[in-house]
Amino acid sequence: MRLGLHQGMLEIRQFLRSREQVVFTLAFPVIMIIVFGSIFKADIGDGVNLTQYFVTGMIATGLMTAGFQALAIQIPMERDRGVLKRLLGTPMPRWVYFAGKVLMVGFIAVLETIILLIVATLFFGVELPNTAGKWLTFLWVCVLGITACTLCGIAFSSLARTGRSAPAVVTPVALILQFTSGVFFVFTDLPAWMQNVASVFPLKWMCQGLRSVFLPASFGTQEPGGSYNLPTVALVLGAWCLVALVLCLTTFRWTTKRDG
């Protein structure tokens, strides 16, 4: 456990020392909220405006960025530089490496969520949950969501052949998920086929779960199926945690193909 905590602190220090990574991971969602929040003013029903709808999606996007996108890009780069290969030659248990990544992602996710909530409440009229039940929902949606995204990021990291190609492989996937999962547009306004595709992946369900926390209960009638459907949100996110864990265990590569 001490090794895991030490590795986690090392990962966090490395993250904070990389200004480009800090700006992209922490500042990008905030910039998106400020830009689009200043543009989206239309009322979409039940006293909800498009800015409030968009902000909940950006919180989910922040979790996806911290877990899926960051790890799916960072790990191939470390593999390409031989970092993972060198770790295999040390007596450090392999799980310690992943523990460090998980602690780093947890730190980033908490920090980013706090920043987004401060910006959203101060400048865009988003109200914080006012009941213990909503805070509990917020907690389990975030925990399941970041767990699924973290495991997906580790599993997806095996697809990039080189560290240089990782951003080109990962970024389009993340952008497509954002545009089809109800982040930038009202989900039910999207074409039916796009809704069906997005419903396969975690981000759509993270957005839906967070809307149940920050938007009125009456707005649930505008969701697919006429409700926020939190049991299905939990079921899908939990299933993704299990599927992604299996993929991590069966596909993760410590070395590049040229290393054998």
From TrEMBL:
Pfam families, A to Z: ABC2_membrane
Organism the protein comes from: Couchioplanes caeruleus subsp. caeruleus
Keyword Transport tagged: yes
Membrane topology designation: Multi-pass membrane protein
UniProtKB keywords: Antibiotic resistance, Cell membrane, Membrane, Transmembrane, Transmembrane helix, Transport
PANTHER family: NODULATION PROTEIN J (PTHR43229:SF2)
InterPro entries in alphabetical order: ABC2_TM, ABC2_TM_bact-type, ABC_2_transport, Nod_factor_ABC_transporter
Cellular localization per UniProt: Cell membrane; Membrane
Keyword Membrane appears in the UniProt entry: yes
Single GO term (MF): ABC-type transporter activity
One term under GO cellular component: ATP-binding cassette (ABC) transporter complex
Organism lineage: Bacteria, Bacillati, Actinomycetota, Actinomycetes, Micromonosporales
Domain (ABC transmembrane type-2) ranges: 20-255
Regions that span the bilayer: 21-40, 52-75, 95-123, 135-156, 168-187, 233-252
Highest taxon, organism lineage: Bacteria
Protein's name in the database: Transport permease protein
GO BP annotations listed: response to antibiotic
Family: Belongs to the ABC-2 integral membrane protein family.
